[in-house]
């Protein structure tokens, strides 16, 4: 979602002229935040998830399904609906996303420290979809809200309703298939973000996704739509717009720590889990109507959101601003930061002089090498010292797999938070709740047992690359910290354990067994979630990506040519709609007996 400040966004040339002043404002605000909040203690453990949903319209007569450009009409109605709900646990906060076919829903109030809150997550997620679906069904019996990480034929053919013109003339980025009309007209900064990213980069986005080579896939495969584009690569699907990335959907979870110190520790221990949860959540095997050889969305958005100039791309270790988390934050783990990242030395020096630890100062020094791509005019020059807009704005415009979120200057209720960002959205509420609750419990395991999962950053980066590979849960090994040191382990060993490592699910089960304040319904629900994670890691249940791939490969109209036709997409999304609404079982991704006792209210 990012920082949703209202106002008129400045053009890139206006931002560029003020960059040094903006950096000074941001650093000064960060120092005020740190001075005010570095010793803050005893904040309660609160947390929450963010889900991005896709709106679609089915055409049953012609066996087609299209993206529904309706979020701008839907969101005001949802806002009014939730204003009338007095019960905070039954209230949803809805926000616009970058594209007009996506809405973001989050719990109106965060989940709390009570164990019974773990049993409310799935019910809350279900409520979100029900609120949207009720409105859609009142308008049409062919419109639906779906949990899909990437619309299979996004950018191919007539893929929206109402139809949009696809040509360079209808795109600020001169894209052939992703026009500006996809962008949300009510999101305060997306259009400006796309324009400024493109202008700063000096070229339009160029994303190349490896094709899945089936028996009838042309050798080499040429993406014919882009035959005149010098940036295409043989045997790759081509995407040519930042909007191609912003149309993807994810699951994010944010945790508030007890203190600054605890937030840094939590950040460092969650960092190695980013590729692990990315792998387990994989849900994106299809891009622009072609079956690809990857399973996840992360690297695609990383390329789409990349604002580096041609010269900056030549710089060593200066990656896209949307990338795997580049460093640990605590001084005790700085030896694991084995990839030297560029930093703004003057910023680092100033932060250290003001008392910030060196490793944390380097993290923020790296943040401040980035330019703020969006600035609202009314915030250009601060009028007082009561808010931290420029720091928060820049921090929100650097999209790593983790984000450290210090308390805002103008909100004393918020503490130090860590946002976990890599996961693809799952097609069922059960799947999203399972990963969310598993991750929440892992934070408790980390803090309670003093778990050390850290490995060198270079190995985390390699794990991120491996997590994208086709069927990586069953085919890949990942660097992981066991009791005998860092070793390569398969997903089953990491999650379910070996002789040298207990396993993440057994550790969570130990934590649950030692808690006497967990009621029977919550224990039962948690165990169903742990079973899903365990069986998915063992390969006895499929990731969403593997199931989608199998569906395409076994479809009667599939011609072994890597093409996902309109008919295949229609049948696939119809099946997903049936599964997500409980009208059909899918034993390959969830055993029918995996039912939960989830409810909206904690007790």
User: Largest sheet at a glance?
Assistant: 9 strands, mixed
Show unreliable segments.
Answer: none
The CATH class is Alpha Beta
CATH topology: Creatine Kinase, Chain A, domain 2
Fraction of helical residues: 25-40%
Structural class: alpha+beta
Outline the structure in words:
With 603 residues, the chain is α+β, with helices and mostly antiparallel strands. It has a single domain (1-602), classed as Creatine Kinase, Chain A, domain 2 (2-Layer Sandwich), CATH 3.30.590.50. 37% of the residues lie in helices and 13% in strands. It is built from 20 helices and 17 strands. The protein has helices at 12-17, 19-37, 71-83, 121-139, 190-201, 242-246, 260-270, 273-281, 298-304, 345-353, 358-367, 389-396, 429-449, 457-468, 472-475, 491-496, 504-514, 520-538, 544-553, 566-580; strands at residues 47-59, 64-68, 92-96, 102-107, 143-146, 160-161, 207-210, 236-239, 251-256, 286-287, 290-291, 322-323, 399-400, 402-405, 417-420, 477-482, 485-490. Strands 1, 2, 3, 4, 5, 6, 9, 14 and 15 form a 9-stranded mixed β-sheet that branches. Strands 7-8 form a two-stranded antiparallel sheet. The protein has a two-stranded antiparallel ribbon with strand order 10-11. The chain is globular, with a radius of gyration of 23 Å.
Q: Would you kindly provide a brief summary of this structure?
A:
This protein has 603 residues and is an alpha+beta fold. The protein has 20 helices and 17 strands. The protein starts with 11 loop residues before the first helix and ends in a 23-residue tail after the last helix.
């Amino acid at each position: 979602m990012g920082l949703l400040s209202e106002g008129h966004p400045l053009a890139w040339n206006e931002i560029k002229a003020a960059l040094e002043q903006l950096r000074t404002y941001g650093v000064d605000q960060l120092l005020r935040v740190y001075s005010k909040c570095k010793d803050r203690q005893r904040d309660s453990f609160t947390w929450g998830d963010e889900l991005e949903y896709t709106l679609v319209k089915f055409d049953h007569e012609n066996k087609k399904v299209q993206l529904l450009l309706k979020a701008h009409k839907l969101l005001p109605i949802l806002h009014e609906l939730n204003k009338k709900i007095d019960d905070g646990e039954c209230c949803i906060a809805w926000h616009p996303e970058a594209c007009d076919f996506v809405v973001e829903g989050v719990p109106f109030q965060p989940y709390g420290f009570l164990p019974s809150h773990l049993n409310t997550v799935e019910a809350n997620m279900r409520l979100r979809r029900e609120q949207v679906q009720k409105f859609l069904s009142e308008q049409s019996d062919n419109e639906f809200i779906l949990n899909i990480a990437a619309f299979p034929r996004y950018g191919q053919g007539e893929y929206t309703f109402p139809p949009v013109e696809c040509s360079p003339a209808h795109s600020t980025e001169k894209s052939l298939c992703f026009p500006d009309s996809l962008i949300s007209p009510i999101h305060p900064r997306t259009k400006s973000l796309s324009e400024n990213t493109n202008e700063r980069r000096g070229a339009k986005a160029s994303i190349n996704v490896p094709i899945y080579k089936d028996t009838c896939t042309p050798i080499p495969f040429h993406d014919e739509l882009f035959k005149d584009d010098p940036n295409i690569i043989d045997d790759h699907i081509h995407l040519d717009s930042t909007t191609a990335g912003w149309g993807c959907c994810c699951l994010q979870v944010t945790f508030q720590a007890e203190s600054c110190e605890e937030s840094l520790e939590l950040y460092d221990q969650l960092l190695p889990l980013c590729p692990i949860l990315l792998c387990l959540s994989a849900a994106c095997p299809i891009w622009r109507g072609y079956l690809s050889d990857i399973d996840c969305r992360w690297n695609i958005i990383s390329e789409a959101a990349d604002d580096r100039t041609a010269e900056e791309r030549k710089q060593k270790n200066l990656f896209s601003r949307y990338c795997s988390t580049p460093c640990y934050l605590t001084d005790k783990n700085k030896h694991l930061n084995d990839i030297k990242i560029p930093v703004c030395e003057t910023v680092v020096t100033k932060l250290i002089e003001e008392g910030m630890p060196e490793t944390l100062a380097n993290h923020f020094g790296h943040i401040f090498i980035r330019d703020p791509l969006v600035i609202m005019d009314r915030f250009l020059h601060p009028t007082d010292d009561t808010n931290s807009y420029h720091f928060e704005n820049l921090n929100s415009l650097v999209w790593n797999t983790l984000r450290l979120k210090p308390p805002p200057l103008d909100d004393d209720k918020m503490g130090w938070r860590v946002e976990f960002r890599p996961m693809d959205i799952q097609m069922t509420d059960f799947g999203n709740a399972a990963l969310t609750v598993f991750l929440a419990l892992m934070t408790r395991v980390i803090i309670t047992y003093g778990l050390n999962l850290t490995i060198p950053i270079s190995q985390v980066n390699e794990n991120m690359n491996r997590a994208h590979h086709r069927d990586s849960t069953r085919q890949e090994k990942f660097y992981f910290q066991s009791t005998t040191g860092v070793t390569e382990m398969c997903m089953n060993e990491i999650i379910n354990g070996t002789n040298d490592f207990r396993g993440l699910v057994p550790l969570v089960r130990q934590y649950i067994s030692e808690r006497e304040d967990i009621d029977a319904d919550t224990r039962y629900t948690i165990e169903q979630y742990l079973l899903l994670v365990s069986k998915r890691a063992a390969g006895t249940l499929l990731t969403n990506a593997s199931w989608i791939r199998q569906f395409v490969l076994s479809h009667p109209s599939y011609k072994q040519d890597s093409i996902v036709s309109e008919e295949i997409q229609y049948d696939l999304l119809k099946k997903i709609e049936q599964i997500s609404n409980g009208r059909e079982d899918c034993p390959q991704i969830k055993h029918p007996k995996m039912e939960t006792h989830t409810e909206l209210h904690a007790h």
